Please model this.
Amino acid sequence: MPDAMDFLGIDALLDDEERLIRDTVRAFVRDRISPDIAQWFEEGTLPREIGRELGALGLLGMHLHGYECPGASAVAYGIACMELEAGDAGVRSFASVQGSLAMFAIHRFGSEEQKNEWLPAMARGEKIGCFGLTEPDFGSNPAGMRTTARRVGSDWAIDGTKMWITNGSFADVAIVWANTDEGIAGFVVPTTTKGFSSNAIHRKLSLRASVTSELILDNVRVPDSARLPGARGLGGPLACLNEARYGIIWGVMGAARSCYATALEYAKSRVQFDRPIAGFQLTQEKLVNMLLELQKGSLLALHLGRMKDAGKLHPTQVSFGKLNNVREALTIAREARSILGANGVTLEYPVIRHMNNLESVLTYEGTSEIHLLVIGQAITGLAAFS
Model:
């Protein structure tokens, strides 16, 4: 009889190292995250020491090579994202921003001096990074950003505001993207630099176990050595976003799995009309539909991971995975909530927390509408962005 949690036997498609990574991260989430995550979510906080703990496990920048980064495969990185988000999207977002945005930007576009200065400490979780691209009025259209960097002698002066920046209020370094006379450029900006400040964003009802901030840059002066020499134009930040989107494809399946597992166990134990509600046809329809999309989404993530490891994954295929898996994970969370009834809206169970988090994941790293248009252009050859 197939396993209710792995109906298609996807586990058999993983190698021993991939299973070891899965089991290690799953145990960390079970022992370190799950006992306290509801409280962190309710309080709107994430302990900064989680960074060092993730670093000790080799989960920060784990798919990067050198500079004390593990150099793991894309599939291994994806599996880690899935297990972290099964705990909470805030924890996975922390790792994603650290490794796939801030560290990746330095690793791909930085100088040797920048790499040696920042990457080892970031891999250990001793230094935290954030990624300053999104602005209050420019999310889906980053090319319109108003943040500027102008030359002042041998230095650069950066002015502008960034919004919805994960890790921003406790970051040690910010990757800041700005318009210059030479086009869009990236800068490695220590957060202790004069003129740099951040404000934590409060009153969120989603990703509460995640630090989200506004960054303010008021005549922030940095030397030319702070500029990312390999980044030219919008392709730089977009390449970073593509890395983060890939992790999301896996991560949301972790949230979906948690919701499905919770709903399944609840339905088998919750008795109404003298029998478990799992025995009713409508409940079984919900559970089966959840399982179908969970397994299909997991297979899609694995397939794209194998393609990425083979060097054959196109950015539009990442959009395909992000669009499908986030949309289906959110549907699974909502169906699970309905099975739990009134209990589904409490933090005693993880479902409403995952559901709220997924509303943010639906928007960040490219909204569903943007990814839909990216795929639309790929299959028709016609751009419909404006």
Notes: Residues 235-269 form the longest helix (35 residues). The chain has eleven helices and eleven strands. The chain has a mean pLDDT of 96.
